[in-house]
Amino acid sequence: MVSATEPIFFLVLASSLCLSLVASKSGEPTPAAWPPQFHSVVMMNNSGTLQVVNLWYDWPNGRNFNIIQNQLGKLLYDLEWDNGTSYLYTLDSNKECRVLHFPVGILRPNWLQGATYLGQHHIDGFLCNVWEKVDFIWYYEDVITKRPVHWVFTQEAGEEKSPLLESVIAGGSHGSLMRGVF
Ligand SMILES: *[C@@H]1O[C@H](CO)[C@@H](O)[C@H](O)[C@H]1NC(C)=O
Ligand SMILES: *[C@@H]1O[C@H](CO)[C@@H](O)[C@H](O)[C@H]1NC(C)=O
Q1: Residue 157 confidence (pLDDT)
Q2: For position 163, what pLDDT does the model report?
Q3: Is residue 2 one of the residues assigned to a domain?
């Protein structure tokens, strides 16, 4: 359970994303759809808990794999299936394992469709187009390469929750940050 505003910051450092340029009719840019499969290295600040996440997104096979290294802490595997089942486990001597069930599958490649354009901002040395989606995700995409640079997830306690937000909360601080269908 999360009882206060909990920002979760993502920084996509390196990825194999290769995206094409898309522009809406109004002249405002629209976020590039995700490639069906990619690997990204994500630096994450999860309310002060620092993690390096190797993210393997695999839409054709209906799965999303987060390999989460906590700073000076455990290595956690979070395998999310589109049918709603997630496996969170370690391969250390403790051999922890949790099975979680979510009402939603993984993010669709076009999950950013319909996001609200907020303009251009500099972040981490990149000039980005910024969009807001379902009132709590800010998504920063490099203007030139169209690659994601930064995400911010925020949520207020007591707010009406989207299926994605429900899942983010249910997943807790160590899992399922990617889950969600819109
Ligand atoms: C991580 O986020 C917290 C706020 O939740 C902030 O106080 C802290 O400075 C951040 N750490 C880094 C390394 O960005
Ligand atoms: C979802 O798919 C995974 C991988 O095939 C499987 O292990 C899991 O049992 C499935 N969950 C449901 C609810 O069918």
Answers
A1: 40
A2: 45
A3: no
CB distance 47 to ligand 1 below 6 Å: yes
Asked whether 5 lines ligand 1 (CB < 6 A), one says no
pLDDT, position 44: 84
Top mutation candidate among 63, 79, 85, 102 for ligand 2, by most atoms within 8 Å of CB: 85
* Predicted pLDDT of residue 3: 37
By alpha-carbon position, which residue is closest to atom 11 of ligand 1? Answer: 48
Number of domains in the chain: 1
Q: Could you tell me the CATH number of the domain that includes residue 119? A: 2.50.20.30
> Are the C-beta atoms of 49 and 70 separated by less than 8 Å?
yes
Distance 36 CA to ligand 1 centre (A): 31
β-strand pairing of 148-153 with 137-142 = antiparallel
Which residues lie closer than 8 Å to 31 by C-beta, 6 or more apart? 22, 112, 113, 115, 129, 131, 139, 141
Q: Is residue 8 part of a domain?
A: no
In angstroms, rounded to a whole number, what is the distance separating the alpha carbons of residues 33 and 123?
21
Q: From ligand 2's centre to the CA of 91, what distance in Å?
A: 20
Cα atoms in the 13 Å half-sphere on the side-chain side of 165? 20
Which parts of the chain sit beneath pLDDT 70? Answer: 1-26, 154-182
The pLDDT score that the predictor gives to residue 180 is 56
In a domain, 61, yes or no: yes
